[in-house]
Specification:
- The chain has about 325 residues and is of the alpha/beta class.
- It has 2 domains: about 170 residues, Rossmann fold (3-Layer(aba) Sandwich); about 130 residues, 3-Layer(aba) Sandwich (Rossmann fold), CATH 3.40.50.
- The chain is built from 12 helices and 13 strands.
- The chain has a 7-stranded mixed β-sheet with strand order 1-3-2-4-5-6-12, with helices on both faces.
- α9 links the parallel β10 and β11.
- α3 packs parallel to α4, α5 crosses α6 and α7 crosses α8.
- The chain starts with a helix and ends with a helix.
Length: about 325
């Protein structure tokens, strides 16, 4: 759990880990900056945990940089500019907006600061390794599982993320691909919930008034999916809901039968592997240009395993992850 002191540090723009012991043999002590989109989404709490775990394992210092306002473009731009001046040994970056942050990332590259990008691919950025998952396939698999539970027919609602986010766009494309395969399923509405619970609650409350029958909901992340579950329950409207991220609240809802399932985006592994990729770059080792983590759908049949906290599981194996890229 992030304590009050560390949250306040993040709200100031950075959270700093203490020195992690003697410098590793491959170099003198190094510091990398690790960017988060926000400190409110549980997804990024797990990303942070994974990044910090990798930093400790690698004996490097890590500093977190996050906007005080969730997903704020202007603030993230300022954070990048501030850190470029400080010249850290490397940066691991996730863009609040995959297009708007391109000039900022180009400045990082122009400053010759080693860079790894994670979770959100960026347009017009080349030469930086990417760590993440296939979001379009994720949307496709989530929707296919939802449609199967709906019996292949009925009315479906899509609660979108931040419209400018590439993850939201790709997940929507995956959903649309699945819908084309099932003509008896009708998409009655697609509205943004901005990846946040309260907006999703408000959006779904309005949609329930408009549509007397909603059989299934695909939410682009779990914070919104849980909001939909809460709104539907309060209204006495049974509906099958799938999301993305496998956050604790969603896993609890899946276990209790209130939510159908969620795609595991492996935030802890993303944090760990993206940090490890930066370490390997600083060592002068080759890093695959793209590192895609495997997809998994979590429902009641396998939710117990998913509920084991990532910190209690073995750390991701870098060599196995890299080997899987070659095999793929």
């Amino acid at each position: 759990m992030i304590n009050r002191r560390s949250v306040l540090s993040l709200m100031a723009g950075t959270a700093v880990l203490p020195a992690l012991g003697a410098a590793a043999a491959w170099a003198e002590e190094k510091t990398i900056v690790y960017y988060l989109k926000n400190v409110t989404n549980p997804f990024y709490k797990h990303v942070r945990d994974g990044a910090e775990r990798a930093a400790k394992d690698s004996k490097i210092n890590i500093q977190m940089a996050a906007p005080t306002k969730p997903d704020n473009i202007e603030e993230q731009i300022r954070l990048v500019e501030d850190w470029i001046v400080k010249k850290p040994e490397g940066m691991v970056f996730v863009p609040v907006d995959y297009k708007a942050l391109v000039p900022s990332v180009q400045k990082i590259q122009d400053a010759k600061i080693p860079l790894v990008i994670y979770n959100n691919k960026m347009a017009d950025i080349h030469g930086a390794p990417f760590v993440g998952l296939d979001d379009e396939e994720m949307g496709y698999q989530a929707t296919k599982n939802l449609i199967k539970a709906m019996g292949g027919k009925g009315n479906l609602v899509h609660i979108d993320g931040v419209p400018g986010a590439i993850t939201a766009q790709d997940r929507k494309r995956g959903m649309e691909r699945a819908l084309k395969e099932h003509p008896d399923v009708k998409l009655v509405a697609s509205q943004p919930g901005n990846y946040r619970r309260l907006p999703a609650v408000q959006v779904f409350e309005n949609l329930m008034q408009r549509f007397p029958q909603i059989d299934g909901v695909f939410a682009a992340n779990d914070d919104m999916a849980v909001g939909v579950v809460e709104a539907a329950s309060a209204a006495g409207r049974p509906v099958k809901v799938v999301g993305v991220d496998c956050i604790p609240d969603a896993l609890a809802a899946i276990k209790d039968g209130r939510m159908l399932g969620s795609m595991d985006t492996q935030p802890h592994a993303q944090g760990y592997i993206s940090t490890r990729a930066m370490v390997e770059m600083l060592k002068g080792n080759k890093v695959p240009p793209t590192i895609m983590l495997p997809l998994a759908f979590v429902d009641k049949s396998n939710v117990e395993a998913a509920m084991v906290p990532p910190a209690q599981r073995p750390a991701p194996d870098w060599d196995k992850v890299v080997a899987a890229q070659r095999a793929g």
